[in-house]
Amino acid sequence: MVWRATKKVGFGVRGKFVAAWYCYDPGNAGPASTAATPAIYKDNVRKDCLVDGVDQCYLEIALKAHNAYRAKHKEGQALIGYIEASKRIQAGLDAAGSSFDGSIRDSETDRTFENCAENVYEAPSASTADLEATRKTAIAVDTWYDGQQWYDYATGKPRDLLDVNKVKLSNQFANVVWAATTKVGFGVKGKWVVAWYCDAKATPAETSASLQNIGVVCRRGGMNTCLNDVALNAHNAARRHHNTPPLALDETIAKELQLQMDEKTDLLWKGVIDLCEGEATTATNVKGKYLCPYTTGNTATTQAQKDAIKAINKRCMDNVFEMKDETKLNELVTKSVATDSWYAGKTEFNYLNGEPMAWNEKARYAKYQDFTRMMWKKATKVGFGVRGKFVIARYCDDNMSYVTGKNLPQQYAWPFYPWPLRPAADPLVATSKFIGYPTIKKNVGGLCMKDVPADTSAGYGYNACYNAEALLAHNNARARLEGYVPLELDLDMAKTIQALVEVDGFSGSISSTQRGIYGKCGENVFGATDLSKLSDVYLTDLATNTWFEGRTVYDFAAGRPNAGSNAADTAKMEQFQKMVWKGATKVAFGVKDRYVVAWYCVGGDYTNPLESRANIGKLCDTTGYDGCYNELALAAHNQKRNHHETADLALDADAARAIQLNMNKNGFAGLMPKPTERNAAFSKCNEAVYYDPTKAN
Predict the structure, then answer these.
(1) 643-664: b (≥16 Cβ within 10 Å) or e
(2) CA torsion angle for 612, 614, 618, 619 (degrees, to 10)?
(3) Which of 315, 323, 331, 459 has its CA 20 to 30 A from that of 426?
(4) Higher per-residue pLDDT: 423 or 68
(5) d(CA 317, CA 327)
(6) Residue 553: helix, strand or coil by DSSP?
(7) How, if at all, do strands 390-396 and 54-55 pair?
(8) How many CB atoms lie within 10 A of CB 554?
(9) Could you tell me if 387 and 431 are in contact, meaning their C-beta atoms sit under 8 angstroms apart?
């Protein structure tokens, strides 16, 4: 009866019987045909659009189009369908019939919708093609949004206030994207479409209201740039608290994720995306959340591009956030509510062993998972998507550090066990498929930011992890110079530096005025240039080693740059001078993204050769052994030998190098190799080892 391919019908009637024949053109399969597949049925039998007086098909089309446009704007939250308004509009259209004049008004007794803004669309003609487009496409919404060309983002007003039609077009655009609006209803009949925008009526004539409710366009190039900026900054701020390297935004990931979310037409979608949607399960490509490549193919035009997308995203995992309060959907883009919710799971992570704090409560275990995903150290790239009340973050790890086997069953969503199954009872432990909690612990850093006040306007605390590691690296470097003085950490100074580097837009420059009481301290600033290796800034001594390289352009005897040095060499030398200056006894560090800032108190006149020679001892280990100590010990030995009328010893540099090589091995605790294990040249040498019990190492 409703078969779309049917073109003609004939009826017969006799007594209590009626018969109908439905005829279609040759080549079109009918429902009784053996060629009628489920796909053909789906195409020819469409759902009933008119439900309880509302055209549900058009509601879905228009609502999706509205939210796609609103998602482009910074303040734009998703609208929800307003069924009661839709009923009222449709009833008004039906009652007016051919006499409809473009406006539906509430009755004097029913003023429910009087504060709703209204958009009206009229098709160019009553032709079949125009009527089809009006009802079955989003041409009305597209037309209203096109009014954007007559809206001035800078002033919040129409571009031409003297042209009534252009003002109308600008206002129609404003109605579509007005941030405070939360619900919309539609009616469609013939060549007319009417939309009512409710809960907060657009007032585009008020400049301040327009500027507040019509945000800049965020949806560019297939991704929501506003969301990605806000969420990326919030993620990296949280990761800094754990001395975890910052994530880099990957636009390919963000665009593919947003495309997947946009393709979800189900109004009851729950925010779950299977990364293997549309792919068959095979022995080498297990269908399962997080562990498989997702392929929509929509942004890939060649097989090579599709394969590249697969290669990227089979190493990814997702966090999903659902906004429960639908009156605050705009905060999904303008605020870090999703990131804050995931980060709140830090209280469910046991930093001692990497395990969840509670196995027996599903909600708490889910928070543990969310936190672990966003803090995973070896995840280097991220992309974010938003649709309706959901935000999804996709974290990607090129090294696949979260699995020991690629073909894990679907329930093992990386890198966790499904609640409530405990690892001790799981067969994957026996087969070494689970990465283990020590690995999880290693990839989720402990809380490094200390003394962080509740109100960040009062400061940001300091990064205890980085300060401790950098202090050790600095003192190890200073120990390579004769007569070095170890540095001590100044926590108040560390807090001051961190507060300065946390300022938005920090680019490595701090004025002497900003330093305040630390204005006379020496300062070094390091900025990583390879943004693909930001983890080195946090997890290695990259900054310290870079500054110490300045020794190669420093003339220790003269206390100035080597002959022939240029300005760049001089700047490099001064970095070295500041970090080894004997007069500096206090140090502190601040770190953010690609920058490290160090202050040394007190500083000196690094351009004064006399002062420089007094504060920088000679380098002791230029040839693989500590020349200063060998010189000191050799003199002491010979002085004692002279007391016994014994000839002086000569320094054997090769022996010194061989000894130092063994002592520099990891885990050295005083045990030297046996004579038979030494190089043959030293197998006949006697040995003495001294141990100072008062020192930690």
Answers:
(1) eeeeeeeeeeeebbebbbeeee
(2) -60
(3) 315
(4) 68
(5) 29
(6) helix
(7) unpaired
(8) 24
(9) no
